[in-house]
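Checklist before submission:
- one chain only
- standard amino acids only
- sequence pasted in full

Submission:
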Amino acid sequence: MKILFNLLTLSILALSSPAEEIRITGEADLSKKVPIHISGYTGEVDSVLKFDLSVVGMEFVGPEKAKFFLSGGNNGKVEGRLSDAGKNSLLAVAFSKGTTRAQAHALADAVAKIITGKPGIASTKITFMQEQKGSTEIFVSDYDGYNAVQVTHDNSLVRSPTWQPAARKLYYTSYKGGFPDIVSHDLNTGTRKVVASYGGSNFSPASAPDGTLSMILSKGGSPDLYICDSEGGGLKQLTRTRDDESSPSWSPDSQTICYVSRFGTRPALFLIPRNGGDPKRIRTEGVAGSLTEPDWSPDGKWIAFTAQMGGFNICIVPAQGGEAKILTEGYDPSWSPNSRTLVFTRMKKQKRVLSLLDVPTKHVKDVLELSGSSSQPGWAK
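Returned file contents:
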């Protein structure tokens, strides 16, 4: 995309106290929505900007209550000028390539970066599973559910889609051959390859940032945690228990795996080095019940997970354990690339839908709904 920056604007941005203040004053301030006034946009661009910015913790107010002002237009290209309450110019930008919707996403990302100090997420992708008349299929879409593309057409069952970081490739479990195998799927060419087809079950693939693949295999009798290279070679077993291990998730440095195993009578979260060793249970103070589906934030600070305590709840805990926080009802959490937002599954009128959770403000927005129930989302990192 063509981005036209005003050099003076960039100089002002580097010294901007309002944006800097919001970024560093701590969680108490981040939990408050940022008031912003938007003017000059129409139609799809206006609705896209407001959706994108609300997802990252902004609320839309009149000029008398605003801390930030975004003005511009969308006549042939999407332009934006951002200033603060002191009328300091923070950003001047224009986008002219791609669809109008893509241009609006790009502007939202630029504004989000200035105000929150984190990269925007409006131009990112998610994958998910959708139920279709007795089968499930894998889809990929924009983060807000638009431009959904069906990846599989197997008329069978697929589960647990996950991205290979920095690549246009998915891993998932497929029952197309009659048994649960782990498959890699190149989104550019459509090429699929079975990477794990051992006796028993092969499920829960998870790709590390360096490309190493973890998975759960029951070829030894009990579901245990294994790792291998991106093509399935060099298989190594990490756990050897009688419990049912599940849901591996990698640390951002590709050195540690968080996974689920039993502690006492309930599933709990554990850490294990990629080279093996003694697992360490993660303390989740303040949250009881069965803990499942961990996902490690890209900045390494948090692990999101699902806690079953009567119903299902999305929670987060510091990556090394400690006080856990209940955020909202739902399950299947997956972190955004900027470690601020979660995409997750929740029930809505007896249907599974995907929703976006801004963690600091706990604000929830549903993505565009498709015809069937959608679940098991995974965010491209």
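Reviewer check: The radius of gyration is 22 Å.
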